[in-house]
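tmp note - Sialin
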Amino acid sequence: MRPLLRGPAVNDEEENSDSTPLLPSARQAEAAPVCCSARYNLAILAFFGFFVLYSLRVNLSVALVDMVDSNTTLTDNRTSKECAEHSAPIKVHRNHTGVTFPAMHAMWSSWAPPLERSKLLTISYAGAQLGTVISLPLSGIICYYMNWTYVFYLFGIVGIFWFILWMWIVSDTPETHKTISYYEKEYIVSSLKNQLSSQKVVPWTSILKSLPLWAIVVAHFSYNWTFYTLLTLLPTYMKEILRFNVQENGILSALPYFGCWLCMILCGQAADYLRVKWNFSTISVRRIFSLVGMVGPAVFLVAAGFIGCDYSLAVAFLTISTTLGGFASSGFSINHLDIAPSAYL
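out:
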């Protein structure tokens, strides 16, 4: 796929970049080990960041099940629900969390070597799925044994602790990192030097006319519509339709996201393996993983609508559907950096 922001001239060598190795020599790759490397430390810290982010995002779905059953009897014997006043802070929180994925893409545009892009980004974003897996059942347990308010207090404290670590450890670029090795810095910088453009003016006209860009937009919209609908309403579906209690609700609602988390990790490794070892072009890998990650979930999600109240099949189909969605993490989800890495600088 041709980059959007590469400057005015595109030669034959750039045209064929999808089918040729992005690293000039094996020696460079060997000079940058994975163990204790700054780029993988960044991936792990980003993983926990998205873990916290989605823990804070989905715990409301479980807490809400407990919140709506609570009421307060006032002195004049009137019963009052106490959920509505929290709506404004919740909306502000969700609006602010929406910037995290673009921000992380901007970080990886300076840190991710092209042939490690799938692995590094899927490790980072898999934290969102594991955060969902842990938060859903844990929130149910907290609501059952304590109080729904502690769901927000405990996860909020973890978020503050992560923020302190992020500010202390992370740097914007390899050049400004305090503890990165010389070999790793040279490996990252040299592998990205042909990917990034020095052009400072954003070519908005070319961007708006780019079919690859609009393909990514449509894919993102379609995938996120399904993902966040399930993320928000799955606990309610488990309670109101399948009649699970709050503990069972949290555990069973987490199953689909555990499968998706595992699938994301494996697909990130597989995508880069296909590109490095089997010489698959980048565009072929992105198309294959996007196809499986979009069509597979759709088939099982539609099938789930025809099984009535068979809770075993319902949970199985929803789990398979969400698990297959993990393929998309190595497809369109990171394709932005393939077509326009300079746009994130």
